Amino acid sequence: MSPPPEFAQQIIFLYAADAAACRRFYAEVLRLELVQDQGDVAIFAVAGQRGFLGICPARGARELTDPRREGGALVTLVSDAVEEWHAWLLAQGVQPEAPPTRSPRGITHVFFRDPAGYLLEIQRFDRADWPKPGA
């Protein structure tokens, strides 16, 4: 038996009590393209037509407050323009956790939260061993 083919696309679904506020945030602040509106679920393109982010109504309050614990989630968006994104977020009224920071792992990143409290990161790989888009 042959293994199945590689995955063609990927979607991360986030659940929010105020899904409308999150839809606006991802469309207007992060400027992601809405590729499918399913009524109560919105799916945005993140990286061309291979990466997607879905916003869904939550079934209840979040029980996990620290996304860096087991069961948590962190949404990372990769861009060479981390500093420009930081300035844009500030101009849009989003308060990042700190200015862009260079990590000992060879990345520069900035962390912030969406209206539902999800932790997001915009990250640049300052190392040559990260695959470039389309590679």
CATH domain class name: Alpha Beta
Which architecture name does CATH use?
Answer: Roll
Number of helices: 2
Whole-number total of structural domains:
1
Q: Regions with pLDDT < 50 over 5+ consecutive residues?
A: none
Say how many strands there are: 8
DSSP strand content: 25-35%
Order of helices and strands: EHEEEEHEEE
What strand order characterises the main sheet? 1-4-3-2
What name goes with the CATH superfamily? Answer: 2,3-Dihydroxybiphenyl 1,2-Dioxygenase, domain 1
Q: Summarize the amount of helix as a percent range.
A: 10-25%
State the CATH topology: 2,3-Dihydroxybiphenyl 1,2-Dioxygenase, domain 1
Instruction: Please compute the radius of gyration using only Cα atoms.
Output: 16 Å
Distance between the termini: 28 Å
Q: What structural class do you assign from the helix and strand content?
A: alpha/beta
Oligomer: single chain
Shape: globular
Averaged pLDDT:
89
Q: For the report, how would you describe the main beta sheet?
A: 4 strands, mixed
Domain VOC: 7-125
Protein name: VOC family protein
How are the SSEs ordered, and which strands pair?
Layout: E1 10-16, H1 19-29, E2 33-37, E3 42-47, E4 51-57, E5 75-78, H2 82-91, E6 101-102, E7 107-113, E8 119-125
Protein name: VOC family protein
Pfam family, one: Glyoxalase
Organism: Siccirubricoccus soli
Would you give an account of this structure?
With about 140 residues, this protein is an alpha/beta fold. It has one domain (about 10-125): Roll (2,3-Dihydroxybiphenyl 1,2-Dioxygenase, domain 1), CATH 3.10.180.10. The protein has two helices and eight strands; from the N terminus they run βαββββαβββ. The chain has helices at about 20-30, 80-90, and strands at about 10-15, 35, 40-45, 50-55, 75-80, 100, 105-115, 120-125. The strands form two sheets. A four-stranded mixed sheet has the order 1-4-3-2. A hairpin with a 3-residue loop joins strand 3 and strand 4 (about 50-55). The chain is globular, with a radius of gyration of 16 Å. Pfam families: Glyoxalase. InterPro entries: Glyas_Bleomycin-R_OHBP_Dase, Glyas_Fos-R_dOase_dom, VOC_core. It comes from Siccirubricoccus soli. This is VOC family protein.
